[in-house]
Amino acid sequence: MSKAGLYIKMFATFTILSIGGPAALFYFQPTDEELFKKYNPDLQRKSLENRQGRQQDFDNFVTKLKEYSKSDRPIWEAAAQDEARTKANSAEEQKRLAAEIQKRREEIKRQAINGQ
């Protein structure tokens, strides 16, 4: 086989694979609606109930991702710093709640002692 024939065969194979592959994927891949219709009714109900929460989670994720991308640092460093700040705030909140609970317990003890 000559080089020209080899190049033609390679070009034809490349064309079939690069155009035909994505076209076949597009043709055979089911849409979200088709998949949803194949769910049993219980799964459809659960999916509809959880849709709003998942959408809100995704929106929060995208919003945070946009905030991280505005930083001059890489996104993963900004995310790690934000996570550390969130953990620190959570720890402070837990300490505050523990102190408040302890204060309430002491107040209840004082009222119990004074009330007797």
Q: What do these coordinates show?
A:
- This protein has 116 residues and is mainly α.
- Helix content is 90%, strand content 0%.
- It is built from four helices and no strands.
- The protein has helices at 3-28, 32-38, 41-70, 75-115.
- Helix 3 packs across helix 4 (75-115).
- The longest helix has 41 residues, at 75-115.
- The mean pLDDT is 90.
From the alpha-carbon coordinates, what is the Rg to the nearest angstrom?
Answer: 30 Å
Sheet with most strands = none
Mean pLDDT: 90
Helix count equals 4
Shape: elongated
Helical content class: over 70%
Through-space gap between termini: 108 Å
Number of separate strands: 0
Overall SS class: mainly alpha
Instruction: Note the run of SSEs as H and E.
Output: HHHH
